[in-house]
Amino acid sequence: MDFLSSSAAAVVLLAFYLSLCNGGKTSIYVRKVEKTVDMPLHSDVFRVPSGYNAPQQVHITQGDHVGKAVIVSWVTEDEPGSSTVLYWSENSKQKKKAEGKVTTYKFYNYTSGYIHHCTIRNLEYNTKYYYAVGVGHTTRKFWFTTPPEVGPDVPYTFGLMGDLGQSFDSNSTLTHYEQNPLKGQTVLFLGDLTYADRYPNHDNVRWDTWGRFVERSVAYQPWIWTAGNHEIDFAPELGETKPFKTYAHRYHVPYQASKSSAPFWYSIKRASAYIIVLSSYSAYGKYTPQYQWLEEELPKVNRSETPWLIVLMHCPWYNSYNYHYMEGETMRVMYEPWFVQYKVDVVFAGHVHAYERSERVSNIAYNVVNGICTPVKDPSAPVYITIGDGGNLEGLATNMTEPQPAYSAYREASFGHAIFDIKNRTHAYYSWHRNHDGFAVEADSMWFFNRFWHPVDESPSSH
Ligand SMILES: *[C@@H]1O[C@H](CO)[C@@H](O)[C@H](O)[C@H]1NC(C)=O
Ligand SMILES: *[C@@H]1O[C@H](CO)[C@@H](O)[C@H](O)[C@H]1NC(C)=O
Ligand SMILES: *[C@@H]1O[C@H](CO)[C@@H](O)[C@H](O)[C@H]1NC(C)=O
Ligand SMILES: *[C@@H]1O[C@H](CO)[C@@H](O)[C@H](O)[C@H]1NC(C)=O
Ligand SMILES: *[C@@H]1O[C@H](CO)[C@@H](O)[C@H](O)[C@H]1NC(C)=O
Ligand SMILES: [Fe+2]
Would you indicate the residue range of the signal peptide (predicted)? Predict the structure, then answer.
C-alpha cells in the first residue's frame, strides 16, 4: 500500500522531509491541478423528476435517539400536495402511513417550494423498508435499512464527507463513496453542504440543485448533519438576519430526542456508536445552551452499551494548514479537557479543504501563567481528523505550516472521503480514499483501538 517505496526519487524526497520536520507524514502525492467548477444548472445530476408535483430532493436522517425512527424530507414545487409517507417492511405487504408537515420560507427574493418533513417511528431494527412519497400526484418509491439494535459488539460502517458543494469534484467524491467496496451504511456529514451562499443573493436555487444532486445517496441511507459556516446565511445586506434559516427549514434532525434545545447540537446512538454533533457557529462558552447540554450529555454515554464515542463538528481544533488557522482554538479551550476525561475515540471535522489526521494528543495543561502550551501525546485523547475535502467550488487548501507539527500524523491536499468501519467493541478500521485513485484504493488508513475497552497506543509513530 505504500506508494512511496515504488520510486527511489520519492524515498530521497521522504528522507529530506523527515530531516526537516518533527511531525508525521506530509504526503508527496501531488494532485493534478485543474479548476474546481460547479456543475451547470442543466447537468444530469440536477434533473427535476418528471410528473406533476413530483417529490424531489428526497432525503432521510435518523429520527430518534436509538435508530428506530427516520425523518423523511422532500420538496414539491407545483402545490403543497400530501405530506404522507407510506412505508412497509420488505417481508410485509401491509402498508403503514405517517403524516408529516409542510413548510416554506423566503430568502431575499427567493421563495422555496413546499418542504415536507415526516418522522416514521417504531420501526424494527435491522430491517429493509420501502417508502413512498408524493401520494395523490406523482408517487416515488425508495428504500432504506434500519440499523441493528444498539449494542456493544454490533459492527457498523460509517462514511465521512465534508464541505461537499456541487462541483464536478463533488460528484466525483460522491461517486467514490458510493462505489467504495467497504460500503458505508450511514454518512456522517461534517458541514458545508451546498455553497449556495457563494452565489449572488445566496441564490437558494442552488440549495434545490444540491438536494437533487445528493438524493441518489441520501434517499436510501441516512446522512447525519452537522452545520458549517456556509449554512449560516447571515446577510443583513439582503435583509436576512436569522442565522441558519435556509438550513433549518430544509434539514431536520432529532435534536429533541437528546434533550437539546436547538437543531445545531445533538446526539444519536447508532449500532455500537454514540455520536455527538456540535456547532462551531453557535455559542459554546460557559453558561450557553450548548455548553450546558454537552456538560450533561457526556456523562450519559455508557461505553458498555455504545463503546465508540465519536464527535462531529465543522471547524477543526487541530489543523496545520494555513487556512482557517486557529479558528477552532476557542472551542478547543472550552471543551478539550472533557474530551480527554470522557475518552472520546475520534473527532471528525471539515472546513479546511484538505485531509489531515492527528496523533492522539491533548493540550490542556495551560493555565495562562505556567507556559505549558504544547500538544503532548495522550492515550486518553481522541484522534482528530479533518476531512473537508469534499470538492466544493472554493478548491483545495494546499498551503501548510512548516515544519509539520509533531501532532500531525498525515496530511495531504486532495479531494476524497473516508470510512470508519466498526468491527466490535475494541477494533475499528479507518481509511481515507482520494478521488484520483480507483474506488478500492486506500490513501491513508489505521486501526482504531477503542479508548474504553482497549486503550493501547495504536499510533505507528509511537514505535
Ligand atoms: C432576485 O433579484 C436579482 C437581482 O437582485 C435578480 O437577478 C433575480 O432574477 C431575482 N430573482 C427572483 C426569483 O426574482
Ligand atoms: C456525476 O456522476 C455520475 C456517476 O458517476 C455520472 O453518471 C454523471 O454523469 C456525473 N455528472 C456530471 C455532471 O459530472
Ligand atoms: C450501561 O449499559 C449496560 C449494557 O446495556 C447496562 O447493563 C448497564 O445497566 C448500563 N449502565 C447504566 C449506568 O445505565
Ligand atoms: C502560505 O501561507 C503563509 C502564511 O499565511 C504565507 O506567508 C505564504 O505566503 C503562503 N504561501 C503561498 C504560496 O501562498
Ligand atoms: C475484534 O475485531 C478485530 C478485528 O477484526 C479482531 O482481530 C478481534 O479478534 C475482534 N475481537 C473479538 C473479541 O472478537
Ligand atoms: Fe467551512
Answer: 1-23
